[in-house]
UniProtKB/TrEMBL annotation:
Signal peptide extent: none
This protein's name: Glycosyltransferase N-terminal domain-containing protein
Source organism, top-level taxon: Eukaryota
Pfam families: Glyco_transf_N
UniProt domain Glycosyltransferase N-terminal: residue ranges: 11-46
Family: Belongs to the UDP-glycosyltransferase family.
Length: 284
C-alpha cells in the first residue's frame, strides 16, 4: 500500500489592512493551486468585518483553505487599519505573539489538517518569527512593495547615518529638500529623497512608523526566505542587489495575473477578503 501523501501546510499572516490582505490572499490561492493546505489568519476585528460586509460564507473557505483569527490587542473603539496604523503597529508585537503561538499549536494538534510546515508572514508582521522559531517551523516573509521599494528600506540605516532623515524641520517637505539626489543605493540611479518610502518623511527620530519599518526589515534577515510580488525581467538589476543580501529570494508575480491565468476552480476563485461591502450601483 502506498503511503498517504500529506499536503504541505502554509499559515499566511497578512498585515490587517486591505492593501496587504489582497496580495497575501492571491499568494495563498496560488500555493493552494500548487497543492498546499492553507490557513489564512485575519485579526478578529477584520474577521468580523468580513462577516458583516460579505456574510458568513466569506470566511467559510474550503476544507483545505481555512480562515482563522487572532486578537490584535487594540480596544474596541480603535479605528484600526490605515486610520490608526501606528497604534496597530505598536500593539501587534506586544499582544499577538501568544495568541498566534496558541493558534499554530492548535493547528498542529488538529486531526483534520496536516501539520504546519511553513509560516508566510507579511514583511511588517515579524512577531510571527518568534513563534516560528519557538516551534521549529520555517518562516518566509512576504513584502508587498515593489523590489525597488523594498531595496530602499534596506538603506534606512545609511540614510540616517548620512543625515538625510529624520528631516531637520517641517520646511524640508516644501523647500526643495526632497529633490536631493541619492547616489549610493545600487541599481537606483537618478532617484531623489521624494522617491523613497514616505514613512521616512518625519522630523521625529522616535516616530512609530519610521522605526517600525526599520525594525521589520532588520528582522526579515532572520527568516528562511523572502518573497516579492514581481518578476526578474521587470526589476532585474534591483533584484540582483536584493538577492546578494537575501540569497533565498523568490520573485512570484505579478500575482494578479498569475491568479487569472492559473486558477480555474470556481470555489477557489470565489474566495475574497474585501473589508468593505461592494456597491454595484456604479456598474449599472
Amino acid at each position: 500500500m502506498k503511503p498517504v501523501k500529506v499536503k504541505p501546510h502554509a499559515v499566511c499572516v497578512p498585515l490587517p489592512a486591505q492593501g496587504h490582505i489582497n496580495p497575501m490572499l492571491k499568494l495563498a490561492k496560488l500555493l493552494h493551486f500548487r497543492g498546499f493546505h492553507i490557513t489564512f489568519v485575519h485579526t478578529e476585528f477584520n474577521y468580523q468585518r468580513l462577516v458583516s460586509s460579505r456574510g458568513p460564507e466569506s470566511v467559510k473557505g474550503l476544507n483545505d483553505f481555512r480562515f482563522e483569527s487572532i486578537p490584535d490587542g487594540l480596544p474596541p473603539d480603535n479605528k484600526r487599519g490605515i486610520l490608526d496604523l501606528p497604534a496597530l503597529c505598536r500593539s501587534m508585537p506586544r499582544n499577538c505573539v501568544v495568541p498566534f503561538h496558541n493558534l499554530v499549536r492548535m493547528l498542529n494538534s488538529s486531526p483534520d489538517m496536516p501539520p504546519v510546515t511553513c509560516i508566510i508572514s507579511d514583511g511588517v508582521m515579524s512577531f510571527t518569527l518568534q513563534v516560528a522559531q519557538d516551534l521549529g517551523i520555517p518562516e518566509l516573509v512576504f513584502f508587498t512593495p515593489s523590489a525597488c521599494g523594498f531595496l530602499c528600506y534596506l538603506y534606512y540605516e545609511q540614510l540616517m547615518e548620512r543625515g538625510y532623515f529624520p528631516l531637520k524641520d517641517e520646511s524640508c517637505l516644501s523647500n526643495g529638500y526632497l529633490d536631493t539626489p541619492i547616489d549610493f543605493i545600487p541599481a537606483m540611479s537618478g532617484i531623489r529623497l521624494r522617491d523613497l518610502p514616505t514613512f521616512l518623511r518625519t522630523t521625529d527620530r522616535y516616530d512609530t512608523m519610521f522605526n517600525y519599518n526599520f525594525e521589520q526589515v532588520t528582522n526579515a534577515r532572520k527568516d528562511r526566505g523572502l518573497i516579492l510580488n514581481t518578476f526578474d525581467d521587470l526589476e532585474q538589476e534591483v533584484i540582483d542587489v536584493i538577492r546578494s543580501k537575501f540569497p533565498q529570494l523568490y520573485t512570484i508575480g505579478p500575482l494578479s495575473m498569475l491568479c487569472r491565468q492559473q486558477i480555474s476552480d470556481a470555489k477557489l476563485k470565489s474566495i475574497e477578503s474585501n473589508l468593505w461591502k461592494e456597491e454595484m450601483g456604479c456598474l449599472e
